[in-house]
Every structure is written in structure tokens, then in C-alpha cells.
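F.,

This is the one I mentioned.
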């Protein structure tokens, strides 16, 4: 009997170490960032059984076999649609500055999506102005309204938007709404989904979360895009979810969420619509590609109004926005201003920012003083010392949770959209960014960033180095897991 127990124990230990070896080998051959691999290896060795389970659930970009196969089948028709944009009059690469031209080349090579001229952009910074503008556009819609959001939170003016959509559907406008199942879970528990469906609105949950689905695909991948397209003529995107800040997370202790949205008209709106069409087809298997932009010549002496639409996520060249960020930072000649609610940069980004500051470029990063994620806040602090020592200016915004995601390079190129400067946005979630070369828009964004700086406290290196030992220990602890946050 004793020999039997010995054999069983030996088999169990041998099987366990074989599993550990297999998972270790899998992590290594993925050839991802060293920090990510190291963090996962640390987890599976510190938490033997829990670490293995965590890796199997969250360790890879597994979107599910059916979804992956469908995505592969979709590439050719969508690439043909995107390729058609290069024959339009609004595609003028020789008009572009070096900033825009390099991004355009990168995005064509990786996505097939070119930068286009003939756009009119407005930067909307007040949530009630944003929601009122949206309601007005919905009320004037004639044919179609397409929504895509991470969070729809009921209450206040968000309910007025819902009523406007229902009224539009009742008038015969075709309304499609994509909402992330996790981000909008409170919305799905209200009467609004049934009211919408009864009015003819097509409402679809994206990336549903359930214990069963954990065995099919990674369950923490999120649809983080914010897209609105009306009649294929008017588009919105930016950092703001479909929420009224007076009703959203008011007891979180971080203040109101501070956001922006971009309202856009012109050639790039159908491109936004095509991204929505892609996401809609992935979820529903129904294809409805939008009409191409009107082939309107670009006036030879018109001011630059070039927009590059950049989607990313599993199945859609998920690191493209990361590449655009790096390229933009390395192109900078005089200044870089960044706003982000969550700051956990990749090794490449932290090196690029430090290199820029050490070359004498004025680098400013604005983050909220208080975060709604304690782990992210502590991990973020672990990067402060090396940035401050390199000469990067760090500002902590005092007037709420600064949720605006923006980058301005040399006051000429703007990057604005849904992407946080953290690993989740850069590598995991489905995101969207606009690269904009338009003086009026970029000037407005620079002014807004300066307002944020005026409402912030700059971190002083000497004071920061005097923080207590226990804070340093907590920062370093969460730093080890920062590649996974």
C-alpha cells in the first residue's frame, strides 16, 4: 500500500512539473515583451495551481476559434474596401507633413487604411454639450445610426440619448447598437434594452462574459471603442462613454470623469463606419459595408485637415496603435504632451519618453491625482522616478478623474481616441485612435491640455524622492505585475 501511495505521489508531482514546463515553454515561444513573459512566469511559480489557471484564462490573445476564423474570412473584403480609399481625391500623401506621411505609410502597410483629407473636426470638452450635440444629430438622422460603446450607464442625459434613439427608430431610421457586455452590465439590467428592441433597434452584447465562455476564449478582452456614425456623414469618437458624469461612479471618491469627444464630418466618417461594420459582422455574422466617401477633390490651397483612423485589437493588428505612438514620439522635435487616466507604459514607450526628454524635448504627462484602480495607481507611481530624473514633467490633475486620452507632438500632430497608456489598451482591448493633422483642431487640443495643466500639481523630484520606504515597496510590488494590468 505504501508503495502504491509513493507511485501516485510520483505521478502527481511528475504531471504537475510537466504542466509547469509546458506552460513555461508556451510563454517563452510567444515572443512577447520580456516584462510580460517575466510577470507570467513569476505568477505561475509563486501561485502554482492558481497561476496556471490564470494563464490559461488570461494569458493569451485567444478570441475564440469561431471568432478567429470569421475574422480571417473578413480580411479580404474589408481590405478591398479600405484599398478603394487610395483611389479617392481625398487621398493626397504628397500634401502630408512628415508626421502624417509616416503614420499613413505605417497604417497602409499594416492595416490597408490611408489618411484622408476633407474633414471638419470639432473638439467637444463639456459632457452636456457633447450629449446635447449628439441628441440633436440623432433627431436629424434620416437613414442610419450606428453606436458602439464600452460603457452605457443609465441616468441623466444618457437616458435622453436612449429616448432619442427610440424616437429615431420609430421614425424608420435603422439603428444598430453594440455594447460591451461587461462595461455596460448595469445598462443591460434596466428596462432600456427591451424598450430599444421593441422599437426596432438592433442591440447586441459584445464579448459576453460567463464561466462557460472562459474555456472558449479569453474573457477579459474588452470592446473599448467609442464610435457613433449618423447617416454615414457625421461621426463621433473619443474618450467619453455613453454616460452622464453627474450620474456615473459618483461614489467612487475620484470626482467627476473628465472627457472629450471629437465630432467629425467628411471623408473619414465612412472609415469609422467601416470599423463599426467590422465589429458588427464579427458579432452577428451579418455584413453591411458602408458606402465609400464622396469622391470630392481636395482644394489645392485648403488648410491641412488630414485624419488617419487607426483601429486595433485581437485579430486586427493589435499593436498598431503602440507602433504609431512610438513613431510619433521619436519624430518629435520640440514638445510632447500626453494626457491619460491610466499610465503603465510598455518598456518601449518608457524608453522613448526618457530618450525624448534627454534630447531636450519638452515632455509633459498629465494624469489624474486619484485613480479608480488602486493597483494601476501604485504601478503607475513606480515609473515616476526615472521619468522625473530624465526631465519629464509629471502633472497630477486635481479636478476629477481625467479620462481624456490624447497626445500632441510639436503642436502639429494630435492623437486622440480611446487608448490609455497601459498594457491593456495597447495590447489587449479593441481600441480606436485618430491621428489628426489640422491646425485649428490641434490648437484647441493644446489649449485644453494647458487647462488641465493649470488644474494640476506638478510632481517635484526632490519631494518625490522623500516618500516613505513602505510606499516604495508597494510601488515595486505592483510594478512586477504592471505588464499584465
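My design for it:
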Amino acid at each position: 500500500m505504501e508503495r502504491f501511495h509513493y507511485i501516485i505521489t510520483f505521478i502527481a508531482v511528475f504531471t504537475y512539473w510537466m504542466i509547469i514546463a509546458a506552460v513555461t515553454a508556451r510563454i517563452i515561444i510567444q515572443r512577447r515583451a520580456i516584462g510580460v513573459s517575466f510577470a507570467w512566469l513569476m505568477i505561475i511559480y509563486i501561485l502554482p495551481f492558481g497561476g496556471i489557471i490564470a494563464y490559461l484564462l488570461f494569458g493569451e490573445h485567444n478570441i475564440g476559434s469561431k471568432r478567429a476564423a470569421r475574422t480571417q474570412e473578413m480580411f479580404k473584403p474589408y481590405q478591398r474596401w479600405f484599398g478603394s480609399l487610395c483611389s479617392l481625391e481625398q487621398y493626397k500623401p504628397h500634401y502630408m507633413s512628415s508626421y502624417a506621411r509616416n503614420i499613413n505609410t505605417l497604417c497602409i502597410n499594416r492595416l490597408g487604411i490611408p489618411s484622408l483629407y476633407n474633414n471638419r473636426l470639432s473638439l467637444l470638452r463639456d459632457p452636456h454639450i457633447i450629449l446635447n450635440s449628439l441628441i440633436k444629430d440623432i433627431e436629424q438622422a434620416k437613414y442610419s445610426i450606428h453606436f458602439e460603446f464600452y460603457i452605457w450607464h443609465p441616468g441623466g442625459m444618457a437616458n435622453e440619448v436612449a429616448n432619442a434613439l427610440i424616437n429615431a427608430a420609430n421614425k424608420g431610421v435603422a439603428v444598430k447598437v453594440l455594447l460591451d457586455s461587461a462595461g455596460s452590465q448595469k445598462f443591460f439590467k434596466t428596462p432600456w434594452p427591451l424598450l430599444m428592441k421593441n422599437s426596432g433597434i438592433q442591440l447586441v452584447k459584445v464579448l459576453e462574459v460567463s464561466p462557460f465562455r472562459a474555456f472558449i476564449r479569453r474573457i477579459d478582452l474588452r470592446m473599448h471603442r467609442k464610435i457613433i456614425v449618423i447617416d454615414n456623414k457625421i461621426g463621433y469618437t473619443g474618450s467619453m462613454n455613453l454616460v452622464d458624469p453627474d450620474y456615473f461612479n459618483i461614489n467612487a471618491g475620484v470626482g467627476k470623469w473628465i472627457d472629450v469627444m471629437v465630432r467629425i464630418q467628411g471623408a473619414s466618417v465612412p472609415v469609422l463606419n467601416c470599423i463599426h461594420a467590422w465589429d458588427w459582422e464579427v458579432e452577428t455574422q451579418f455584413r453591411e459595408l458602408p458606402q465609400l466617401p464622396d469622391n470630392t477633390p481636395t482644394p489645392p490651397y485648403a488648410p491641412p485637415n488630414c485624419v488617419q483612423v487607426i483601429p486595433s485589437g485581437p485579430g486586427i493588428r493589435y499593436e498598431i496603435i503602440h507602433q504609431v505612438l512610438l513613431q510619433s514620439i521619436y519624430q518629435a522635435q520640440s514638445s510632447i504632451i500626453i494626457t491619460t487616466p491610466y499610465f503603465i507604459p510598455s518598456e518601449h514607450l518608457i524608453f522613448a519618453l526618457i530618450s525624448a526628454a534627454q534630447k531636450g524635448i519638452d515632455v509633459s504627462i498629465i494624469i489624474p491625482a486619484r485613480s479608480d484602480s488602486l493597483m494601476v495607481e501604485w504601478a503607475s507611481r513606480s515609473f515616476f522616478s526615472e521619468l522625473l530624473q530624465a526631465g519629464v514633467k509629471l502633472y497630477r490633475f486635481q479636478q476629477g478623474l481625467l479620462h481624456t486620452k490624447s497626445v500632441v507632438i510639436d503642436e502639429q500632430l494630435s492623437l486622440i481616441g480611446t487608448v490609455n497608456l497601459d498594457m491593456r489598451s495597447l495590447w489587449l482591448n479593441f481600441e480606436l485612435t485618430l491621428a489628426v493633422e489640422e491646425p485649428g483642431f490641434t490648437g484647441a487640443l493644446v489649449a485644453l491640455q494647458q487647462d488641465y495643466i493649470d488644474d494640476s500639481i506638478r510632481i517635484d523630484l526632490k519631494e518625490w524622492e522623500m516618500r516613505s520606504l513602505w510606499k516604495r515597496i508597494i510601488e515595486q510590488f505592483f510594478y512586477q505585475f504592471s505588464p499584465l494590468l
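Residues 2-58 form one domain.

Talk soon.
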